[in-house]
Amino acid sequence: QDLARARELFKKELVAREFVDHAETDARAAEAMVTSAAERTSQAQRDLESAEADARTREQGFDPQQLGTRLAEARMVDASAADLNAKAVLQEVKVREAERDLADAQWRESQADLQLATLNVEYTELRSPIDGLVSKRSVEIGQVVQPGQPLLVVAALHDIWITANFKETQLRGVRAGMRAEVFVDTYPDRPWRGVVDSISAGTGSRFSLLPAENATGNWVKVVQRVPVKVVLEETPSGNPHTLRTGMSAVVTIHFR
């Protein structure tokens, strides 16, 4: 049975050829041991029957020592046969353990393949960290892209704020939390309520790509502008995407 199982596994490409050869060798050895034990058992049985016949025909000349010796030899043969049977069972257990180890290794390999396939499927999806509208898409379907290449821009229009560039002379008394009123050019008659969120730590020119430097000493004083972030308190009525990124606006901060 073990040999047939090994051959069947080899046909299914689940075990190596050397595993089948080893199983065939063990099977032949086990068959030889069983055959030898059977022959020795038959011989012992014949000897026992002969001894019993001699005992019956020679009641006066009964030799208990000789009969005991033959019985002991028969018991030894039986013990040898039992030992061979135990070895055969042990060999079958080893084959079953090898099959279990092989199945466990194949299961672990299939689990690793499944995890890799799942990861590759996840790599085919690009998830945006925010909700919004796709804008400025620079690629098309089927195009090959590289790591780090910009693909598109997502505008989060549900979280709207205004960057108001106030003159530095207008910032006296401006604090975070003050109320503000915003008008956009698209809806000049529609005011939007807002709140001053924060004031930039520097002027707009200081954080520009090429900040102005006065190395020659020829300096002309120019009033600088400081970015002030104003967050809208309300969501645009009707179409929630009424306000768009980059629109012009006029902001008025109320000190009272």
Walk me through the structure.
There is one protein chain. The protein has 256 residues and is α+β, with helices and mostly antiparallel strands. It folds into 2 domains: 122 residues, no CATH class; 101 residues, Efflux pump adaptor protein, beta barrel domain (Elongation Factor Tu (Ef-tu), domain 3). The chain is 43% helix and 18% strand. It is built from 3 helices and 7 strands. It has a 5-stranded antiparallel beta sheet with strand order 3-6-5-4-7, with no helix packed on it. A two-stranded antiparallel sheet has the order 1-2. The N and C termini lie far apart (96 Å).
Low-pLDDT ranges: 12-17
Strand share of the residues?
15-25%
Mean pLDDT: 76
Largest sheet: 5 strands, antiparallel
Note the total helix count: 3
Output the radius of gyration. 47 Å
Number of strands: 7
Tell me the count of domains.
Answer: 2
Q: Which structural class do you get from the secondary structure elements?
A: alpha+beta
Q: Looking at the structure, what is the overall shape?
A: rod-shaped
Instruction: Report the end-to-end length measured between terminal Cα atoms.
Output: 96 Å
Sheet with the most strands: spatial strand order:
3-6-5-4-7
Give helix % range. 40-55%
- N-to-C SSE string, H for helix and E for strand: HHHEEEEEEE
